[in-house]
Amino acid sequence: MSFQINTFEAYQAAYDKSVSDPEAFWGEIAEHFFWKRKWTNVLNWNFKEPDIRWFDGAKLNITENCLDRHIYSNGDKPAIIWEPNDPQEAHRVLTYKQLLAKVEQFAHVLKNNNVKKGDRVCIYLPMVPELAIATLACARIGAIHSVVFGGFSARSIADRINDAQCKLVITSDGGFRGNKVLELKNIVDDALVQCQSVERVIVLTRSRTPVSMIKGRDVWWEDEISKVETQGNLAFPAEEMDSEDPLFILYTSGSTGTPKGVVHSTAGYMVYTGYTFSNVFQYQPDEIYFCTADIGWITGHSYIVYGPLSQGATSVMFEGIPTFPDAGRFWDIVAKHKVNILYTAPTAIRSLMAFGDEYLENKDLSSIRKLGSVGEPINEEAWNWFSEKIGGGNAPITDTWWQTENGGILIAPLAGVSPTIPGYAMLPLPGVQPCLMDENGKEIVENDVTGNLCIKFPWPGMLRTTWGDHERCQKTYFSTYEDMYFTGDGCYRNKDGYYRITGRVDDVLNVSGHRIGTAEVENAINMHSDVVESAIVGYPHSVKGQGIYAYVIANHHGKEEDTKQNILQTVTRLIGAIAKPDVIQFVEDLPKTRSGKIMRRILRKIAEGDTDNFGDTSTLLDPSIVDKILEGAQAHK
Ligand code: ATP
Ligand code: MG
């Protein structure tokens, strides 16, 4: 018996049970995993400190659930299909058997290099199978991984290594992204000048970029593997972990402030990612699933590695970018590997949509059955394009709302099971109890309302602390409202009780007493055929309280003024005159984090005319964009 729910009635029943008796509900789900010893208590919690413990007293190792337990029935099933950056290079397939063998080998390597249970290991690798292998090998030995996205600078890596006091770094000589080669090892060398805690660096060969190896510190991945191979017995018994032993640290993307080292623990995270993967995507045993995220982000942790593997799925992992060699690359991958489930981000959808439909010509997308979106509110136009052009009009879209801190998806339709509305994340998953709070700290119980989104009750995948600073965790998430986890997101619940995320709370504007979500205005602007993308922020306005400032990327063909007028008309028609931007500034590009999120706090500063202190911009993809926007903004003064 599986824990997958396949009808809407069954969803409702599961949801009701998860609220009336959460411990019985999650206890039954946990029975579908492999434990070395069962728990004594399903849940102990308080949101004051906070102190959250799931499946206390149990012993397990997550890699036995992701690998060993599939070997007898499914050992030859592909676990990972890896698609390289360059389509001319051969792809790689790792079956469950092969992946387990590689993870065990590399666990030996970690052990030989003095890594012990509880040690922190920084992983800074491109999207190659060894990234998944290294991650799982850490989990096998009980070391805590901290994966740092392969696009980050030396400074960002050093900050993260120092925060977690990592003992070992795993990197590669270089990595390929589109037509660029990233010199990862050189960047690590720069970072390590500032890091005292690192004793050892393991370097994988990928790009054959020349590197300098520091004697006594740096070793090659391949050399370490050959040493292990000569040792004989290659099995590596999985370390016995407590339920609440930390599994990993992952830093948030930093779109609202300095990144936080979010800590996830073992048992709850495993149960939650496995359960949500199976249910949200309605994964069937023969399906090929492709999540386009990078393992450097939570989406990759939960829905490329741990969730799919714990469910015995086939997970496609892509090294490159959606626009290399051209904007048809995702569709080529779908056709080549006969992808059934595609999980991607609005930022990718919008950018591919802007390249035009010619990149879809002659692409065989007939294998697609289900689509997913994550990372930002998805605007209606992008939703419709995704549905029609990629899903052929009949593949359900699941718009999944969640955060690094959540471990897994919290609000989303179950693909093909729950109803959908473009731009809506719809309903909470079983076990998730969302609520909307007003400015006075009161819960709003009615429908057709907007409020600050909180979660009332623990779910197994939630964060336990922020590394080295429990007080920051308490302050950031558990102090705004008593006994609630505060998400920081604004949300609209429609008359039927369906949820629509409107963006960050500080992105909800108050214009002449009307609450307007930035996403709503962006949605309307993006409907204009010349507009590629837009970002809305508020700024102090002497009459309205807040004015609306729009940054717009558009092909206005030199007719700026006409396009502006058309945009204003579009907004008036779709939302009303109240939502008309006071300022429209055309920009070449928007400041985005490396995970593709718009850094609205910078745009807000520019709109406010405060141009001195932009805070931490180290996670920006291209910091030079900020100067260009600033120049443009001067012209509006
Ligand atoms: P930081 O917390 O450091 O500012 P971040 O919040 O950008 O970084 P993530 O945890 O990756 O880092 O992003 C979570 C946020 O992304 C959510 O709080 C929400 O604002 C947004 N988000 C994610 N998925 C969706 C979705 N499906 N619809 C709307 N918004 C989404
Ligand atoms: Mg956040």
Automatic annotation (TrEMBL):
Acetyl-coenzyme A synthetase N-terminal domain mapped to chain residues: 11-66
Domain AMP-dependent synthetase/ligase: 68-458
Keywords of the record: Acetylation, ATP-binding, Ligase, Nucleotide-binding
EC numbers on record: 6.2.1.1
Domain of life: Bacteria
Name assigned to this protein: Acetate--CoA ligase
InterPro entries: Ac_CoA_lig, ACAS_N, AMP-bd_C, AMP-bd_C_sf, AMP-binding_CS, AMP-dep_synth/lig_dom, ANL_N_sf
GO MF terms held by the record: acetate-CoA ligase activity
Top EC class, one word: ligase
Gene behind the chain: acs
Boundaries of every AMP-binding enzyme C-terminal domain copy: 520-597
Lineage: Bacteria, Pseudomonadati, Bacteroidota, Sphingobacteriia, Sphingobacteriales
Keyword set includes Glycosyltransferase: no
Family as reported in the entry's similarity comment: Belongs to the ATP-dependent AMP-binding enzyme family.
